[in-house]
Specification:
Structural class: alpha/beta
Oligomer: single chain
Strand order of the largest sheet: 8-9-7-10-17-6-18
Radius of gyration: 34 Å
Strand content: 5-15%
Helix content: 55-70%
Distance between the termini: 77 Å
Largest sheet: 7 strands, parallel
Number of strands: 27
Number of helices: 39
Amino acid sequence: MSFLNKILKSFLGDKNQKDLKEVGKIVAKIKKAEPALRELSDDELRQKTREFREKIKTATAEISAQIEELKAQIKSTANIDEKEGLFSKIESLKKDSYKIEEKVLNEIQPEAFALVKETARRWAENGQIVVEATDRDRELAATKDFVEIQGDKAVWKNSWDAAGTSVVWDMVHYDVQFIGGSVLHSGKIAEMATGEGKTLVGTLPIYLNALTGRGVHVVTVNDYLAKRDSAWMGPLYQFHELTIDCIDNHEPNSDSRRKAYQSDITYGTNNEFGFDYLRDNMVTSPEELVQRELNFAVVDEVDSVLIDDARTPLIISGPVPQGDRHEFDVLKPSVDRIVEIQKKTVSGIFNEAKKLIAAGNRKDGGFKLLQAYRGLPKNKHLIKFLSEDGNRVLLQKTEAQYMQDNNREMHKVDKDLYFVIDEKNNQIDLTDKGVEYMSQGNSDPNFFVLQDIGTEIAELEAKNLPKEEEFAAKDELFREFAIKSERVHTLNQLLKAYTLFEKDDQYVVIDGEVKIVDEQTGRIMEGRRYSDRLPQAIEAKENVKIEAATQTFATITLQNYFRMYNKLAGMTGTAETEAGEFWQIYKLDVVVIPTNRPILRKDKQDLVYKTNREKYNAVIEEIERLIAQGRPVLVGTTSVEISQLLSRALSLRKIPHQVLNAKLHKKEAEIVAEAGNPGVVTIATNMAGRGTDIKLKQEVKDAGGLAIIGTERHDSRRVDRQLRGRAGRQGDPGSSQFYVSLEDNLMRLFGSERIARMMDRLGHKEGDVIQHSMITKSIERAQKKVEQNNFGIRKRLLEYDDVMNKQRDVIYKRRRNALFGDHLRYDIENMIYDTAASIVSVTKSTHDYKEFEYEIIKYFTMEAPVSEEEFKNMQLQELVEIVYKKASEDYKMKLQVMKDKAFPIIENVYNQQGSLFKNIQVPFSDGHKVLNIVTDLKEAYETHCDSLVSDFEKNISLSIIDENWKLHLREMDDLRRSSQGAVYEQKDPLVIYKQESFHLFTEMIDKVNKEIVSFLFKGEIPSNG
């Protein structure tokens, strides 16, 4: 804690302690409610839930009656402005109803929490609960093993199958779990240490909030936990007549998944909840929707879901026209050659650097060392050399010297290289020498050089060519620029794939497919792909099938998805270090919950070595020492590569062990469950096994408990804390020790110069180790730098998606209006008005009456409602009103004509074949394209084609919105990529992106309005239909 924070805390007090003090008052009320509930019979205990639900219903009854009354008024009025006003009143009343419900939930919270505990206690102590059998009990008894019908009684047993694991209920809530549950109910994050029973804590707010019937979503990090927890905790809710399901048990877009969302409590993974939201905004009928209102979400392992997984957006994509056309195969041999020659060049430069430094020429040696570092920073020999006496300090000094004055002298360093790598910013640039090498044997020396398009256009315009020739020349210039731009981009991505992305670290190859590994959790991110054609570059590098490029059909970041819930809460063992991000992005407070028993784990200071070889030897020796004591050992690694390297080393020494990494993630729970047995060695990525406790036998506790060995400090303190937290659950003994070397990524990129200098001053030789609290703090400072950098990246991603989110809100709202039809007529009137305003403003500004007449005919299929004289003399707003009024009247008449024309056809089909068909297809054409509209035959007949007209309006609107939205998303993808070039002009790419995206979206909305209006005015049933 900083000195300033200590001073502020002494004046203002500790916020966490204040939060806990407030929650303590609620816990006291819960304890007070417990004795009365103990006196109730089993039937009376169950009856309490019905009483709670009735209390909520009674409190909101008046508002519910008002809403029903307003809905009746909407049906009885034809005035669309009046309808819109009534809809607004309903939305306002719904918000009032939600507030009343929350107030009632707070009132009943102490008794409800005590009720959940009492139910758990009766199962744990009595083995069963016996109640009068209801129809629901009988229904459950037919499919579930924990309910048995005995005459008119239902016996609820305390043992059942939880997703393949047999469980016996033996848990009863203790006081600190009431604290955690209260924090979750208030819409905050409860940080609870590993083993404190977060799954059981969750039952308290989940039960309470499910009473409203609005739905509670329980979000987990993987489908195994979603299925396990829903089956494990399910009977507790089902006994109290709440419905529960897990969406990961059902296929997307299926009736069973739709039913799962109708449950009071719905479990699932973050990805599936997010993808269902996107899919719902692509459907063409209300019956296809699966989700309902996003009410309350409890996110388990909230840091993993809302921070780690939030780095990449959720994307539903589809094929791009000619998306299988690319130059990866063509350019791959050239990239193979340039990477190879760069390796040879850097090797030569590095050898020169070592000789010069050994000879005492540190100036020239430092220069060569910087060249080698900018050429191949991940070269293993270079990394080892930089860990030796004074070499890293020399590199940093030389780099600082050449970076002065905005890298003015850096070109001297780069002149011998073919490309330059900026590892920290994940960027690669081809040098002049590289361009020359890549262009060898090519007739065009500028084959890989992007021309200055602005200069070339200016030169072209200066020639004063005839207009046709100038347009043709400009088209050719833009075409050539686009081809070269794509080529340079492909080359850049290939170079990145070869030099910055390593197999079994950032990705794995399984069954000929490249799969991304989450750098935080070590898990495979199924269904996720890198953006910007990087996947194709890695596929080319690994010689597997290069998938066709795709375009975005729908996208959202997890941040923007979860911010849509009325209330959001989360639980984890590691959130405090990211409290700032949780508040800034989600407005979520973090409250650290005290442990039920004191933590006895011994956290030792880091051991720092110079090289990886020394470090790994020390790790293996420590493992041998620990298993000789009969202690289980969990070895945490940061990548698949390191876990496999350690596995090979342990195999050589014939030490039995289990490996858990991205390649073996399906065995996760099984391996972690065995990790607490005596002498068992488990190698796992730092975040593996979240949600599964490592339980210890008494002999292991007597031997000293679980030993945690970290083989490297992770970029994030939170991930290290997660690894440490695997030991010491519920007062168990244990220990944790991190082993660090100066070759580790964190130390190499962000490690303090002070550590390197200190080791040099103390004369540390190979094999020596340093251990001090100052070193540990210095490493944590380096981690803070990375955390700030990672937060910056996530925030940047969110800033880009916020632009999309505003547009998404507009489009998805219009889709919903069209889908349900309630607001559609109002939207159509607005579109007619906007189209009229667009036509008038453009033609009025140019005083072009002929164009005005043409546009009115083109979109409204009517004659101009004013003469040329009136057009010239009228004010713009007056003219807009006249055009809108006339177009609106014409549209109403057009719809009546359509109904009159369609009804005899519908009547004939209904009378002849009404018993055979429920729905029929009716073709509509605007003279250019034909759209088939599906409508309910009986409803069309009974409403004299009113429903057919509504279906016509709905389907035309949805079709045109979707078509243009997909095109717009593709343009936004291109814009995001092209706007990054603004950085070379000293401009902020985000500002450019915001400005250009606003223009693109405005143009798209105008185009959508005009296309929908045009089709609605021209659309009719073809005469041969």
